[in-house]
């Protein structure tokens, strides 16, 4: 029988759980609960607590809508949705042992289109990291209107500010959980990867991490201020209030979630910018320049980077909904027109590369490139220039046979391999992320080990001038 471990942090004492992989501490606040007007303010320090805090139960989650992904079971990715409670700016920690050991620390930032996700998602099980000597920290951050709507009078990019605050908490606190605060790797997937890339260009992030991993994000995924104003104007109109932080502060979270459908489908193309999220989310970072073009402002030159994408990212947005077969040439063109000023040339290029592709396959290729591949390539190139060749690139090509064999190497499919949980039964079946087939025997081991080796030693197992292919 395992006894529950107890750790004394600067904010107070917390009790966790011990299991075969190490110790787990859940729902530890890194900032004060954002309520009322403070939902639109920068994260504030937590005041701490008296007595022993129960770190054995999961955290409330950030207010978020339910997500339906057609036939594909994405609950392991999105988690339980909105679990109510004020204190949701929290971290979960999985550590080999909360004793001095100066172990590598990895801080994970979840995805979910800037509107959903949490530390409670089953895919982010840190057992394998703790088993292999790493302290894993997973982070909740504000989402949607509370996290990313650009409002006059509100702090911009509040979700990003939350991640920075969590990294500051890690720097100050992680040694008591057995981690080395001088050896922190931040890694994220999808929206979390885009946030990770933005940190590389953020002056306030200097000194908070030594390495970064960007999984299926984009160095060009931010909105311009003009694009953000369109979303703010639509949100204010849907609520019937002025577009100011003061007006929004009086609106309860339930109402803010209720208007999200009114923000979908906005045309964010302007005279100077296309829609970097191709209509899939009305929220992103709001920046004057894209992260890939602003690396000189942040810690990027001193940070080692591991970065890559999946080979069929865009299929996630078509296959589960039945739209791969239903797509027409006009649908493929419309997707290209959201992301490119010259969509005809883009379609012709993709057609030349895939002469036998169906309209749906063309549309998926256009989506994958626009959402992830182009922005990842630009970030990798920019980082290699500024860092003197400290950039490792990977490509993930394992094709899930989910949904009648059609999901492929879609967005999110790499996550079970990174977390070394690809053998979990709930990931298998025709409507599960990895499909009915058993996962390749060694792919999770190779990918997980590469991530850990990068965090521990900077060397993931291949040279910076080589693209490492996993599962392709």
UniProtKB/TrEMBL annotation:
A Pfam family annotated for this UniProt entry: COesterase
Sequence ranges assigned to domain Carboxylesterase type B in this UniProt record: 4-460
Gene3D superfamilies with a match to the protein in the record: alpha/beta hydrolase
Family annotation (InterPro entries): AB_hydrolase_fold (IPR029058), CarbesteraseB (IPR002018), Carboxylesterase_B_AS (IPR019826), Lipase_GDXG_HIS_AS (IPR002168)
GO MF entries: hydrolase activity
EC number: 3.1.1.-
Region called Disordered, residue ranges: 36-62
Keyword Hydrolase: yes
Key words of the record: Hydrolase
Keyword Hydrolase: yes
PROSITE patterns reported in the protein's UniProt record: CARBOXYLESTERASE_B_1, LIPASE_GDXG_HIS
Family according to the record: Belongs to the type-B carboxylesterase/lipase family.
PANTHER family named in the record: CARBOXYLIC ESTER HYDROLASE (PTHR43142)
Protein name, as recorded: Carboxylic ester hydrolase
């Amino acid at each position: 029988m395992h006894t529950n471990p107890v750790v004394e942090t600067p904010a107070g004492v917390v009790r966790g759980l011990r299991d075969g992989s190490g110790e787990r501490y859940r729902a530890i606040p890194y900032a004060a609960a954002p309520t009322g007007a403070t939902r639109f303010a920068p994260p504030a320090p937590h005041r701490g607590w008296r007595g022993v805090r129960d770190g054995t139960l999961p955290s409330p989650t950030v207010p978020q809508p339910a997500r339906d992904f057609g036939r594909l079971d994405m609950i392991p990715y999105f988690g339980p949705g909105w679990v109510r409670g004020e204190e949701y700016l929290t971290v979960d920690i999985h550590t080999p042992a909360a004793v001095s050991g100066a172990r590598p620390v990895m801080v994970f930032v979840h995805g979910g289109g800037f509107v959903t996700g949490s530390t409670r998602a089953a895919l982010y099980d840190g057992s394998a990291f703790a088993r292999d000597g790493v302290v894993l920290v997973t982070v909740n951050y504000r989402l949607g209107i509370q996290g990313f709507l650009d409002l006059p009078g509100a702090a911009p990019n509040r979700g990003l500010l939350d991640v920075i605050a969590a990294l500051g908490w890690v720097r100050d606190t992680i040694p008591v959980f057995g981690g080395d605060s001088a050896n922190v790797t931040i890694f994220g997937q999808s929206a979390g990867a885009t946030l990770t890339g933005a940190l590389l260009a953020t002056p306030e992030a200097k000194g908070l991490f030594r390495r970064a991993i960007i999984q299926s994000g984009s160095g060009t995924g931010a909105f311009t201020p003009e694009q953000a104003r369109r979303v703010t104007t639509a949100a204010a109109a849907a609520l019937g209030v002025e577009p100011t932080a003061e007006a929004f502060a009086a609106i309860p979270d339930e109402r803010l979630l209720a208007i999200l459908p009114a923000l979908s489908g906005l045309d964010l193309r302007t005279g100077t910018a296309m829609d970097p999220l191709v209509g899939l989310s009305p929220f992103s970072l709001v920046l004057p320049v894209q992260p890939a073009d602003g690396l000189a402002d942040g810690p990027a030159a001193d940070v080692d980077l591991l970065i890559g994408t999946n080979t069929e990212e865009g299929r996630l947005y078509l296959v589960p909904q039945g739209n791969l077969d239903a797509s027409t040439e006009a649908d493929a063109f419309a997707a290209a027109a959201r992301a490119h000023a010259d969509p005809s040339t883009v379609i012709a290029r993709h057609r030349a590369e895939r002469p036998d592709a169906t309209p749906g396959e063309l549309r998926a290729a256009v989506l994958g490139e626009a959402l992830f591949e182009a922005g990842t390539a630009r970030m990798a190139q920019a980082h290699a220039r500024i860092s003197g060749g400290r950039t490792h690139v990977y490509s993930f090509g394992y094709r899930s046979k989910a949904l009648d064999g059609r999901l492929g190497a879609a967005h999110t499919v790499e996550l079970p391999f990174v977390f070394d949980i690809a053998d979990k039964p709930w990931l298998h079946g025709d409507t599960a992320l990895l499909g009915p087939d058993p996962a390749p025997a060694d792919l999770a081991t190779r990918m997980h080990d590469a991530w850990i080796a990068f965090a521990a030693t900077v060397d993931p197992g291949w040279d910076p001038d080589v693209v490492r292919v996993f599962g392709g």
